[in-house]
Amino acid sequence: MMTKFPHLRQDFAASLVVFLVALPLCVGVAVASGVPAELGLVTGIVGGLVTGFMRGSSLQVSGPAAGLTVLVFEAVNEFGLPALGVIVLSAGVLQLAMGALKLGRWFRAISVSVVEGMLAGIGLVLIAGQLYSAAGLKAPTSGIDKILGLPGAALDALGSTTALASLAVGAGTVAVMVLWKKLPKKAQTVPGALAAVLLATLVTQVFGLSIATVEVNGLLASIQPPGTEAFGELANPAIFGTILAFTLIASAESLFSAAAVDRLHDGPRTEYDKELMAQGAGNAVCGALGALPMTAVIVRSSANVQAGAKTKASRVMHGVWLLLFAALLPSTLALIPLPALAGILVHAGFKLIPFREIVSLWRGHRGEALILVVTAVSIVAVNMFEGVLIGLALSVVKTAWEASHLKLEIVDKGAGPIQAHLSGNATFLRLPKILDSLESLPQDRPVELDLSGLHHLDHACRTALENWAERHSAVGTEPVRVTEPEPVKATAP
């Protein structure tokens, strides 16, 4: 047996660690998304037993992610829980199609600043929303209202003993998770999130605190495959924006996670198109079961690598343990206090905000730092999908602006023709600057325009330069002499 599966012992041990990391996160993400807790477990199970079996990235683990919580909550609020399955199923089919068309690698071309800005925006909305949950209060719907309403919520909480007790449990959960990292390595065998939830549950039970706990519906009762009415939501054009947002964000998060996991181990590298298809298959199954969407999750994936996993068997077995827990011990979920899960997600939200990256970007690449901040603020102020589109648009504009770098050098020796040397890339983006400089040249002097230093001259610039040369020569001055860019030489085969 051991010769057939030489890494079984390491994979078995790693699977238990990943299961213990995944369990509180699956439940917490589901509750924060406004869906039954069991649906988070279903997505974790599918992540192990479906995506886990497929090729792509052998050591990264998939399941419900904090990064999609805000989007799921918005979708359930707008379209209803039955339509969630249709959205996730459609996103899964799109991911399968993109993988089959070999578009997976193109996600790596998305600006890191946009992805980090997206995660920062999600983190801010997640933290704000979960602070209400930690106090046992109802959170406003929009991201901006969540943040603006926090001072009022704090005043409400201060006037209620129940809210203060609830907040204390949430704060205690965060404190345990932060301090857990400072314990000896042996103690950290039990994941901090699980230890925090167990301690919060114990405190709540021992002191008899009247704090809201997880509502248990039963695994089979929670699974609601989308019916014909849910598919009827596809007639609503607004749902397609949400489907695209799910597809874009889940794919980007999974493939960026894959790149990060590859840096943690020296095993086989990720096959991006196959990984995208594995994520698509998992999301299609999750959608068919009416469960939460999935992505690859860096927290679980890094725990898997650090626990010594060698093959995909560890992530498959973690799905088995989640299934056994959901089937045999579902009633234990009812003991978990909701503020403890809110605490876990506040901690997860902080980890989504790339504080160090913002500082280092600001020092070296202020344009990228600006894209990151604008993307995050747009997600908070508007919504997830439009915020990401704003970030992508800014990224494209910045790239186009940098690609059109152009230098104009004027040499005037006082007598004879004025020499104007253009070098770099002459595109329409720089056209106003070029024309302003050329039109400011003395009208009564001959000009030699040297374009030989240009790598690229687009049609708009060529036409504008020809028109300027015609105007400059029209009042009796010698015609402008133009030295054309040198043609690009074909390289020998």
Description of the molecule:
The chain has 493 residues and is an alpha/beta fold. 61% of the residues lie in helices and 7% in strands. The chain contains 21 helices and 6 strands. It has a 4-stranded mixed beta sheet, with helices on one face. A two-stranded antiparallel ribbon has the order 1-2. α2 packs across α13 and α5 runs antiparallel to α19.
Present the secondary structure layout.
Layout: H1 8-32, H2 37-49, E1 62-63, H3 69-79, H4 81-100, H5 112-134, H6 143-148, H7 150-158, H8 161-180, H9 192-206, H10 219-222, H11 228-232, H12 238-262, H13 272-288, E2 295-296, H14 298-306, H15 313-328, H16 338-352, H17 355-364, H18 366-381, H19 384-403, E3 406-411, E4 418-426, H20 431-439, E5 447-457, H21 459-473, E6 481-483
Parallel strand pairs: 4-5, 5-6
Antiparallel strand pairs: 1-2, 3-4
Helix pairs in contact: 1-2, 1-9, 1-14, 1-15, 1-16, 2-13, 2-15, 3-4, 4-12, 4-13, 5-16, 5-18, 5-19, 8-9, 8-16, 12-13, 12-14, 17-18, 18-19, 20-21
